[in-house]
Structure formats: C-alpha cells, structure tokens
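Record 1 of the preview.
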Amino acid sequence: MKKILFFECAQNNGGARKAVVQMAKSLSGCYDVSIMDMYGSCKPFVDSCMASGIDFKVFSNTDPHFIRSSKSKIEKLLNVFTFIPHMITQGKKLKHYFKEKQIDYVCVSTFRPLMYFLFAKPQAKVVFFAHGWYIKSQLSRFNSFLLKKRADKIVGISQATKQALYNNSIASLSQLYVVHNSISVDVDVIKPALIEDSENCIKILLCGGFTPGKGQSFALDLADELNKRGVSFQLILAGIVYRGSSSQYFLKRMQKKTTELGLDEKVLFIVDHDNVYDIIKACDLVIHPSETEGLPLSIMEAQLFKKPVIANGVGGVIDLISDRFTGYLPTHNSVDEYADIICEIEKNPQSCDDIVNRAYSQIKQCYSPEEQKRELINVFK
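->
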C-alpha cells in the first residue's frame, strides 16, 4: 500500500488547512495516510488533526523561525539569514525521515514546507496542492522556481488555478490535476449563536481572514451605501487574524473605519471563532468581494446552507457561481451593484429561492467527499 504524507507548516487553521485534513480523511481508506506538521505551533490545526483519526506527528519542537514577522526591514532580513541554516539542517533531517519511513508521496499545500526541499529534495514524489489562484502577478520568481524544481505534480483546487499555472509556464498539462474542495455538513445540528434574531433586519456576512485582499474595506463602503439608502441591516465580518503584525493592524484599521463611518451599531466583528457554521446559518446572505481565490470554502459553506452569495468573479469563484443561476456576480467591487442586489433580496427574499436551490444541488452533487476521493485517487493511482 502506498504511503502518503501530508506535510504542513501551519500558522493558522484557515480553509486550506481544513482542506488538508479532509483530503487525508478521504484517502485514508485507500492508502497509508498520515499528517505531519513541522512545528506544531498552530494549536487549532493540531487539534483538528488529532480529532481526525489520521496518524499525526509534529516533526520538530524548535523555534519556527520563518513565522516571525516584523515591520522592521532589518529584523526581517535577520530572520531570513537565521532561517537559512535552520532550513538546510531540517531539510536533511526530513529527507532522512521520508526515506526511513518509505514515504511514496509527500503532499504540501504552501511554499513554506517546499522550501525545506530546496537543498535536500526527498526521494519521495512531491505533490503540491495549489489552494490559491496563482496568476502571474501573485506568484514571485522564487515561488515559481520552487514549483518548477521541487514539485513533481501540482494539484489545482479549481480549473482557474490549473489554467493559471499552465499559462505561467509553471508546469505541463500532464503534471497538472484538479481536485476540488469537498464539503459535507449536517446543517440540522448547527444552532445559531452570537447573532440575535431579527425579522426586520437583513444580516449580511463576509467570512474571511483579516487581510486587504479579502474585501473587508469594500464591505464597509457597501455598508455605508446601504445605510444611506435607509436599509435595515447588520454586517458581520467574521474571520481569523493571521499570525504576524500586519493582520492585527488591518483589523484595527477596519474597526477604526467602522467608527469613522458611524457604523458601530451596524457592524459586528467576530474574530477567531472556532466554527463559522452557526454564524452562516444565522445570516440571510453572504458577500465575497475578494481580490483572489482558488476555490473559496466560505462560498461552498454558504451554498450548502442555502444562503444567496454575491461575489467578485475571481479565480475559482466562477466554478461555483454562474450569475443569477447559482449566485450573483456583479461588476468587480461595484458598491452600487452589490447594494442593488441586496435591496432586491431584502424586498423579495423568495426571488432567490431557485438560485440557492440550484447552488445547493451543485454542491451536493459535485463537491462531496466521495467526488473528492475519486479525483484524489486519480492523482495517486
């Protein structure tokens, strides 16, 4: 039986980390599957792995050098120089470990674990799971080099990701595969929490980590427009704060902007909440004004809960949404068009019943764990 190891350097337990655990579970009945985290520094990810029933190991208890973040360019440069010898040493240890355990495939989903193979490429085949969009403007030369030289196969999370990698000359079509995220939630066991129920107020959710690319600043501009139109609403911004100063700083900027716009009574921030399903179920619709996406799990979750989704048509979003068929695709970051759709849904909630039902059927048929398992086996067989 082939041995497959999912190797992570998790900093946060976001959508990509959740997808890794789900993929490992999907493959566990067919292969000898295990998960290994480099440092074990992200407790929610470690807890998720431990609860999955998959064999799990933390490789090193040393200080995770590269996770350090600083606004100081000098400190960042020092971090790089201290990390290089650490990377070389750990890379050699990893190569020996993979050989000793007779690992056939090492699966990674970010560039951080791939860096350890820069000076010590393992004998095992390296499979890179590309969870982003990977268009040229978002991919550095160094990361392009890592993919070309250290990844034997690349698995895109959407057709958009596959085409971006091919168009950037990162890999040939024979090296590229597509394995979608899967989702399966017993929606009946989720109970609303944190958000008070109100029939006269439309609840709008944006779910995503607090970074500029996820669209929180646009969402506040949208809230300002809805407020001017006299719409009774509540905007919920739910997401994790990534490790490092920049994400925390961005969250504070958004909170300050909320106050400056006079929207403190209209906007609710939910930070680092363990389970967003209860939040999704309590909301009326979901907006997703992201600048880049692979295949957003938050949209899949909203569609599974039969919530209408209004989104920017970037990356794998268009795998999930056809305009006014399985969701809404307004002009990119158009405050007026987003607001028009929200007002339309507010005045006639039944107008989107067919849309959410089609989206729900699509998720159940095309993005089930069984379908993901079939796609994964095609990569490793």
